[in-house]
Every structure is written in C-alpha cells, then in structure tokens.
C-alpha cells in the first residue's frame, strides 16, 4: 500500500481485510466496535482467524474456539491468558464480545507503526474489562489514556445517575516512540475564563482526558442518518494529536465514515472498513465524488 494509492473504503468483514494490510503501515487505528456482536458472529470470527489469517496474523493471534482456553501469543503470552480466563469465568456475557474483538485487536497491533496509537471506543458496560485485558495484551507501559467523552442528550434514568459518557482507551505500540502532538489539537474554552489572562482566555485551554462534546445534532450539517455516528469534533482531536499530515489512518468499524471525513479534512490518508451495505452507502454519499477514494469491491 504505497502513498500514491487512493484512500480506500472497503465493504467487508474487517477480519478478512486486516490480514491483507501491511505491517506497521498505520500511525493511528481507531476502533468503534458494536457492543452486541452476538454468538453467531463470534463463532464466525474465530473460524476466520484460524483459516484465513496470514502467517503474521496467525502468529499474533492464535485463538482457540473454546474461549476459556484461548491464547494470544506474539504480543501477550501466559499472563494475558490467565487474566482472560479469570475475567471470562467472572462474566461470561463479556466472553463473546471479547472473542470477537481479540483477533481484530491482534491485527490492529500488527498494523500499527512503531510510533502508532490505538484508540478503542467503548461503552461503560465493557470498558473496565477491556482495559484490564488491553493492559495485559499491549503491556501496561503502553497504556496512554482513558478518555471520557461526556455528552448530555436523551432520556435520563431517575433510578441511578444517568449514564452519559463513552470511554475511549488509548494504547501506544511503543511507549518510547509514539507520536503525540498536543499543540495541534483544537483547544476548548476555560471553565472560569475570568481567572486567567485575556490572552489565555482567547486562546482557550488544552483539552484534558474528559471531553465534553455534544452528540451529532439530529438537525446539524454533520448528520448522515447512520445511527451510531460519532461527532467529527471527537475524531478531529484524535486525528490531530496522534497522526501527522500524510500518515495513514485505519478505521475497521467505519460506520458512517467519520474518521475518514476528518482524516481527509486534515490531510491524512485512510482505510475504512465496514461490513454493512448501509454503512458503505452512507459513506458514498458522505464523500460524494471526492477524488482519490477507491470503493472496494
Ligand atoms: C459503532 S458503529 C461505528 C460508527 C462510526 N464510528 C461512525 O462514526 O459512524 C460500528 C460499525 O461496525 C460495523 N461492523 C460490525 N462488525 C463488523 C465487522 N466484523 N467488520 C466490519 N465492520 C463491522 C457495523 O456495521 C457498524 O457500522
């Protein structure tokens, strides 16, 4: 995949596509997987890894169909296997989900450049388990951040604190080499602008690991109609901080193509994958007849 090739939107199961992409090609991998993957899909995914993976992927992820006995070697090993076993015994609802995700994460790790970063977008039902497992998979020293995207929209429970946030776990391939440029990131207003100088107030402050950002407005410019569409403002910060112009960005659960839209605006290259025809249709409409994008097949 050379720099003169077009950006790509691929209609396929990402587990069929990821093994065909070259090692270390992506500075940024953003994954926003669905939560309800379901058992049938999980079993299919496991079969794919066993039969379809390249040698490199097979090295990185050798997954046994019985999840409790799964092993991932190459970037994890026995410690990961033990933690995984404990977690799955503790909550078997998470079992299917993780079995679906694990081979894709192994691929993401292989595809990351040495200075690359993974952003894994999760909801509160899975984030804590996923963090423990990712610590074991990538190595604790590769954990960079737990981002909280907080929004305030929709119905509110009166029986508990309404849950109005997503978690984005950030892991780097190499803690000594990763790319992170906070100076390129869109800044935000100070909460108490009267407490800082007018110059500082005008410049805004660097975002922290808690991002207040509205969901995609049902009437706004960004809206594509795709149900799980994420706001460009959230993706923009990620792309600005963790890639440079010209770098390749991968989104293997692309949905409406938010990552691609932002990557294009910021001069990054992209590969987007989604298995649903509706998502690809939305991306066709979103990118219009923009030059330099290849839709496959
Ligand atoms: C939460 S949505 C992503 C939304 C996206 N971030 C956006 O801003 O529009 C998850 C997407 O993953 C896709 N998906 C689920 N399983 C997949 C698979 N095995 N391969 C490729 N895409 C998959 C779904 O079709 C869905 O569009």
Tell me the radius of gyration: 19 Å
> Largest sheet, order of strands side by side?
6-4-5-3-2-7-8-1-9
Q: What amount of the residues lies in strands? A: 15-25%
Which regions are unreliable across 5 or more consecutive residues at pLDDT < 50?
Answer: 38-74
CATH topology: Rossmann fold
Give a short account of the largest sheet. Answer: 9 strands, mixed
Summed up, the helix count is 10
Secondary-structure element pattern, one letter each? EHEHHHHEHEEHEHEHEHE
What does this structure look like?
The protein has a nine-stranded mixed sheet with strand order 6-4-5-3-2-7-8-1-9, sandwiched between helices. Helix 9 links the parallel strand 7 and strand 8 (269-274). Helix 8 (232-242) packs across helix 9 (258-265). It has one domain: Vaccinia Virus protein VP39 (Rossmann fold, 3-Layer(aba) Sandwich). By secondary structure, the protein is α/β, with parallel strands linked by helices. The chain has ten helices and nine strands. The structure holds S-adenosylmethionine. Residues 13-15, 32-34, 226, 228-230, 253, 255-256, 258, 273-276, 279 line the site of S-adenosylmethionine.
């Amino acid at each position: 995949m050379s720099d003169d090739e077009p950006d790509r939107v691929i209609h396929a199961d990402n587990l069929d596509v990821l093994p065909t992409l070259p090692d270390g090609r992506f500075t940024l991998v953003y994954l926003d997987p669905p939560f309800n993957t379901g058992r049938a899909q999980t079993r299919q995914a496991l079969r794919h890894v066993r039969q379809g993976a390249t040698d490199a992927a097979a090295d990185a992820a050798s997954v046994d169909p019985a999840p409790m006995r799964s092993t991932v070697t190459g970037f994890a090993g026995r410690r990961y296997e033990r933690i995984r076993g404990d977690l799955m015994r503790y909550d078997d609802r998470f079992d299917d989900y993780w079995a679906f995700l694990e081979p894709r994460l192994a691929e993401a790790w292989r595809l990351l450049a040495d200075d690359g970063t993974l952003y894994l977008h999760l909801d509160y039902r899975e984030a804590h388990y996923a963090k423990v497992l990712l610590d074991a998979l990538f190595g604790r020293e590769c954990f960079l951040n737990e981002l909280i995207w907080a929004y305030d929209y929709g119905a509110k429970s009166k029986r508990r604190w309404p849950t109005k946030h997503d978690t984005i776990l950030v892991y780097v391939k190499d803690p000594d080499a990763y790319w992170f440029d906070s100076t390129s990131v869109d800044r935000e207003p100070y909460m108490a602008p009267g407490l800082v100088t007018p110059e500082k107030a005008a410049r805004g402050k660097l975002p922290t690991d808690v991002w207040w950002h509205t969901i995609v407005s049902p009437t706004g410019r960004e809206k594509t109609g795709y149900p799980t569409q994420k706001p460009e403002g959230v993706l923009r910060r990620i792309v600005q901080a963790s890639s440079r112009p010209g770098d390749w960005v991968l989104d293997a659960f692309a949905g409406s193509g938010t990552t691609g839209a932002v990557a294009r605006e910021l001069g990054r290259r992209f590969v987007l994958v989604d298995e649903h025809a509706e998502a690809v249709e939305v991306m066709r409409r979103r990118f219009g007849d923009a030059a330099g994008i290849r839709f496959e097949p």
